[in-house]
Input
Amino acid sequence: MRITCVTVDCHDPASIAHFWSEALHWTSPHVSESGNGATTRPPEGGTYLEFVRVPEEKTIKNRLHLGLNAGSLVELEHELTRLQTLGVTIAWEEEFPPKVAVNYRNVILQDPEGNEFCLGGGESPG
Output
């Protein structure tokens, strides 16, 4: 068994799929004719993201979210700036003991519809 996709509930599948395509440098999204769904995938194929229109508002913290890695701490700063221009907001930053924090950061972000995801950078504590 393997994971083939991660599905995200949202109000505007086309818009949020375009956001994630840009954020991840993936292929242009495929949007269903009805507009009720969209997908985006990496250029090399594999696991993809699916976005499905739902009527209800997001009201609580996600119970599952994506964890991304930017590379170095310098690359993390660059990616944070780039993602903010795409509509990301910073929710909070995880706190680590000083010995870890000097080499690693993990920032919890929200996409334009408020779905949380993590962006880490530096030397992972393990």
About this structure: The CA atoms of residues 75 and 121 lie 7 Å apart. The longest strand covers residues 104-110.
